[in-house]
Design goal:
Low-confidence stretches: none
Order of helices and strands: HHHHHHHHHHHHHHH
Structural class: mainly alpha
Largest sheet: none
Mean pLDDT: 94
CATH superfamily of one domain: Tetratricopeptide repeat domain
Shape: globular
Helix content: over 70%
CATH class of one domain: Mainly Alpha
Distance between the termini: 36 Å
Number of helices: 15
Number of strands: 0
Oligomer: single chain
Radius of gyration: 20 Å
Strand content: under 5%
């Protein structure tokens, strides 16, 4: 493996390290490489590494550089759009997606739907449904879960629950799936089923602050102040640790 890496350019080496999950070595190599190779591939690769490390603000200008220099650089415009979305720049995220000449994909359409939803546009639903037709689910970002969240916010709870209950078995392994299910059930005031779904969510993701917070409110409705207080504390702990 080391011999193969030596045959690559420094930017390619950094990208290879990223694909192997070695984020910090990839960052160090790419930060040095981008000084002498300002091309879109190197900028994109470093931007993706920053994004994976949770540093969206440093990722965005690099991804912008890559997409603007060559919109056909694979994933450059898509990841720029995701960085902009993460910075709450939703209209700019849509504009970045519009730059991408690649054929429509499930993740691209889901990203479009999320930005439209954040802007309060009902056309988000069409994007999510088109993405769902193309998806190899579950995916990230996931069109089914995004559409369920959209429907729940609109108060279309029966539609949201039907969509979630029709999900393939693989979704049972996803904490956000159980969270969205619990959220829709809670809005229908089905407190016991909502609690079960949310317990599944926090079992899969113990630091899931939003799920703990909602579970706390559900336990209040169920008349269990001890569990409500416990999950309220866990929600605060999870929210603090994620900052």
């Amino acid at each position: 493996m080391i011999a193969l890496l030596l045959l690559l350019t420094p930017c390619e080496q950094g990208a290879a390290l990223f694909r192997q999950g070695q984020l910090e070595p990839a960052r160090q190599l790419l930060e040095a490489a981008v000084q002498t190779d300002p091309g879109p591939f190197c900028a994109k690769s470093l931007g993706i590494v920053y994004a994976a490390l949770g540093d969206t603000r440093r990722a965005e200008p690099l991804l912008a550089r890559a997409c603007r220099a060559n919109p056909r650089e694979p994933d450059a415009c898509y990841f720029w759009a995701r960085a902009l979305y993460g910075l709450d720049r939703f209209a700019d995220s849509l504009a970045a997606l519009d730059r991408d000449p690649a054929p429509p994909s499930a993740r691209g359409l889901t990203a479009r739907g999320q930005a439209l939803d954040a802007l309060g546009q009902n056309s988000a639903e069409a994007a999510f449904r088109q993405a769902l037709k193309l998806s190899e689910s579950p995916a990230d970002p996931d069109p089914r879960l995004s559409l369920a969240a959209f429907l729940t916010r609109q108060g279309r709870l029966a539609d949201a629950l039907a969509l979630l209950r029709a999900a393939p078995p693989a979704y049972q392994r996803l904490a956000p799936y159980h969270y969205q299910l619990g959220r829709a059930l809670a809005q229908q005031e089905q407190w016991a089923p909502a609690a079960e779904a949310l317990r599944n969510a926090v079992s899969l993701a113990p630091a899931y602050a939003e799920a703990h917070g909602l579970l706390s409110r559900v336990y209040h409705r169920l008349g269990d102040p001890t569990q409500a207080a416990r999950h309220s504390a866990l929600a605060l702990q999870g929210s603090t640790s994620s900052k």
